[in-house]
């Protein structure tokens, strides 16, 4: 399952990064995601709403993603974190097929 995690660095994290500007945060993210059985797909720095990150990763266990997200918050690395489940086009095709099968079973309000 693919996920997108976005968040802003905390003041503590920014101070640590400024003190060691060559630190490799991508390697730290990769290590955490791989420890959860996943794979880092890509990582970007973002400036929206303050210095932060956007990380796209794949994990086989859906409970691993919120564990990764929660850990970054609990340890004071990130704040204002958002975790979004991403769907591949093959997955979305299956969702659409399921919706088509279920369509006759649902009555919308006012019907």
Describe the structure.
The protein is of the alpha+beta class and about 110 residues long. The chain is built from 4 helices and 4 strands; from the N terminus they run βααββαβα. The protein is elongated, with a radius of gyration of 18 Å.
Mean pLDDT: 95
Low-confidence stretches: none
> By helix and strand content, what is the structural category?
alpha+beta
**How helical, in percent, are the residues?**
40-55%
Overall outline? elongated
Which value, in Å, is the CA radius of gyration? 18 Å
Quantity of strands, as a count: 4
Count helical runs: 4
Distance between the termini: 36 Å
Q: Which H/E pattern describes the elements? A: EHHEEHEH
- Strand proportion, as a percent range, falls in 25-35%
InterPro entries: GYD/TTHA1554
Protein name: GYD domain-containing protein
Organism: Bradyrhizobium zhanjiangense
């Amino acid at each position: 399952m693919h996920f997108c995690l976005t968040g802003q660095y905390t003041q503590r994290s920014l101070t640590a990064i400024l003190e060691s500007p060559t630190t490799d945060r991508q390697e730290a993210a990769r290590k955490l995601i791989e420890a959860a059985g996943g794979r880092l797909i890509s990582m970007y720095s973002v400036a929206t709403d303050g210095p932060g990150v956007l990380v796209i990763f794949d994990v086989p266990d859906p409970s691993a993603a919120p564990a990764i997200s929660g850990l970054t918050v609990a340890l004071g690395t990130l704040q204002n974190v958002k975790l979004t489940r991403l769907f591949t086009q093959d997955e979305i095709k299956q969702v659409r097929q399921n919706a088509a099968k279920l369509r006759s079973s649902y009555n919308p309000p006012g019907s």
